Prior knowledge:
The protein is an alpha/beta fold. It has helices at 23-38, 41-45, 64-75, 84-87, 94-108, 132-146, 150-153, 188-199, 209-214, 221-242, 250-258, and strands at residues 53-57, 78-83, 112-117, 155-161, 179-182. Strands 2-3-4-1-5 form a five-stranded parallel β-sheet, sandwiched between helices.
Amino acid sequence: GGQAGKRGREKERVTFEDVGGLHEVKNAxxxxxxxxxxxxxxxxxFKKKVGGGxxxxxxxxxxxxxIAKATAGECRARFxxxxxxxxxxxxxxxSEQNLREIFSSARANNPSVLFLDEMxxxxxxxxxxxxxxxxxxxDTLLTEIEGIETSTEKMLIIGATNMPWDVDPAFKRPGxxxxxxxxxxxxxxxxxxxxxxxxxxxxxxxxxYDWLAKETDLYSGADIENVVETATExxxxxxxxxxxxxxxxxxxxxxxxxxxNPSTIEW
Length: 267
Ligand code: ATP
């Protein structure tokens, strides 16, 4: 037995506490969608229209999916992730049918957060001329989104993309994905927090979090998770070989950093 087996299953409910950095993103999500979702009275009093969705954009692995999941956790809502490429169907009307089914099953499972990833794969964009068949898919999605009364239906829509310039402008109008939020690569302070989040609950000793943050410029949250996983794996392998248990140390993390590369260079 011992410490290696202690970690067990992944925690079910992810909340904002599990997300490092991204303070402005958390604030914006809080104001724009969580508040009207959990306490609609104020918005009703002031006749403030709620509804529509937010669109998260930024480089891969920096927490778009993760913060959407945490948003569901904050609202104690079900998280329903959808990849746009999975719903696209070459048969006429197939994609529209898939979309309607997803929305109706989400409705049946409210409260829910519907997360639509790869929003750039839908509709008109630079790499793909607009076609009539795409148009009706876009219209179907817009109809579904505009039909949601956030406060009464208890359903939130969060879209995401790595290529915001490729998102069909029709999605960016009021009542649709009218709020665009940049999910940035983590700065030094955020990287420190992410290391702390990922290493807590694991057996560690003498960790210099400032050093880790400083040495991982351009690492995404996913890259940091990978560093921690790599270091953990090395320690477990060693323990299995030697039979001597020990916690994760700085040297393991240094080695893991040396063996990985940052992925957010282009941004
Ligand atoms: P993609 O554009 O490729 O879909 P993404 O932005 O949706 O990427 P996520 O899937 O949210 O990226 O991130 C991958 C993993 O990296 C998450 O499951 C999480 O463990 C970790 N991660 C990323 N950013 C953060 C962060 N800010 N705080 C904590 N963990 C993070």
